[in-house]
Amino acid sequence: MRSSVLSTFPGKVEFVPYSGRVFIDKLLSSKGLSADLIGGDMSDFITLKDANLLRPFTADAATLVQREYLPGLLELGQLDNAQYFIPWMQATYLMVARRDALKYLPKQAQLDHLSYDQFIDWAANIHAATGTPKLGFPAGNQGLFHRFIQGYLYPSFTGGMISTFRHPRAVVMWQRLRDLWEHCNVHSLSFSSMYEPLQSGEVWLGWDHSARLFDILKQNPEDFIVFPAPVGPQGRGFMIALTGLGLPQKQPVPETLSLIDFLLSPATQQKILEISGFFPVIKLRDETLPPRYLQNMSQTVSQEVADPQAIISVLPYGFDDFSEQFNQIYKNSFTKIVLRHKDIVTVVNEQTEKLRNLLAYSYATCFPPDPPSLGPCPVY
Questions:
Q1: Is 359 a member of any domain?
Q2: Predicted local distance difference test score (pLDDT) of residue 288
Q3: For the chain, what is the domain count?
Q4: Domain of 302?
Q5: Considering the entire predicted model, what is its pTM?
Q6: Which residues are within 8 A (CB) of 167 and not within 5 positions of it... i.e. 6 or more apart?
Q7: Residue 310's CATH number
């Protein structure tokens, strides 16, 4: 941030980084934190807004929200019908394939508009041709496979993540995941990331967080291709980690608004991508994104967000110290349904009760893709 991004800002700015919890505690403390501009993730801004430590963007900063944002992102910064933060940068998860896998795509399938049925058929074709399952997911202890279930499968098949947990369409989703898992590499349950299995050729087709794929795509740009998430019956579900920029309660100084304008400029958005792997939140129409692997990654992310069928999920928030319990409900459902072949309806009903109890205890409200709720997010 200091040497590569802020060094070109035509003004004076001090970058003061904090870890998330320390940052929040500082702002909540009686002494507070002297800041003119706050950068954080969605959960940070919700906490700060609830503590009355943020001021919404109003007419004095109206020009700052006139960027050509990727569809759906600006709206995520609206809390209680006011713009409390504006998008800054985003991370996400990516589908990736070795180029060797492309010849096994199902006939008439389009890589940028795969259905989940076609995705399963693709994995089956590779499995049949090579004699070994070449699909892989990071389903180990440190892996993020639960995010695939929460932010990709559930929205694509049911339209939601929490409220539709026990919807009849969820039963179909779990059955399709069983079908998919038949072609999954047996070591997926030990993979924490997909870097090594993709690099070695043990896996030809996979999914992981963009940051965990960054190095392999940088090192082997001609060997791999990234592509948008498959489309389900309800649309193209995918998950993003959105960071934003917000204003503390005090009146912003002119330099603050200039800094926001600078951070949202195409040149700065491109620079952030190059040094961190966090993707732009605005359209970069005529920008060149060297090297090529960054351009491919950025185009894939933009394509997902701009898709009329897009169903955007955000990282779960509102559970405070109970986030892992929330994730564990999805992990346990996967273990019982897919790995142990327990009855789907029985498991979903059992886990629904645990989910409802957790929501009631934490008082966590709904977040995208589920519609807003006044109290704990309901599970219908």
A1: no
A2: 57
A3: 1
A4: 6-91+240-314
A5: 0.90
A6: 158, 160, 380
A7: 3.40.190.10
